[in-house]
Amino acid sequence: MKLLLSALVCGALFGSGLVISDMINPARVLGFLDLTGDWDPAMLVVMGAALIPSFLAYKLKAGLPTPLFDPRFHLPTRKNINGRLVFGAILFGIGWGLIGLCPGPALAALTTGRWDVAVFVLAMVAGFAIYRRTSDTP
Fold first, then answer.
1. How far, in Å, CA of 137 to CA of 115, rounded?
2. For the segment 29-82, what is each residue's pLDDT rounded down to a tens digit?
3. Which residues contact 31 (CB under 8 A, 6 or more apart)?
4. How far apart are CA 77 and CA 100, in angstroms?
5. What DSSP character marks residue 111?
6. Which chain regions cross the lipid bilayer (predicted)?
């Protein structure tokens, strides 16, 4: 129960940050990606500010044997770059550049009630399901 509650609090905090910083606005994201036009640096500030809690969390992790609400830390173990990773990154970047949303902000943007965001999230969930059914990765 503690794990579920802590995940809910962290998700709500993350979603609130996305809403407050206006990162759920596809136009804001696309403005950041438009380097030759009317470039919007707001996302650079948001990403830079995100480094602070991330840095602090890694420092805190170094002094803890386990997380507070989980029996172990869940950190990536793979160090290699393979074709699947590169293809996934390219696909993610194309989608992000075309639409201006990625999974986290898209879920937070559902709170706006916009139909196009709902369609995006449904397509995203369908993509997750297709990948799960066709992939040998658990």
1. 32
2. 899 988 898 899 999 999 999 899 889 988 988 889 998 888 888 888 888 999
3. 38, 39, 40, 42
4. 30
5. G
6. 41-60, 81-101, 113-131
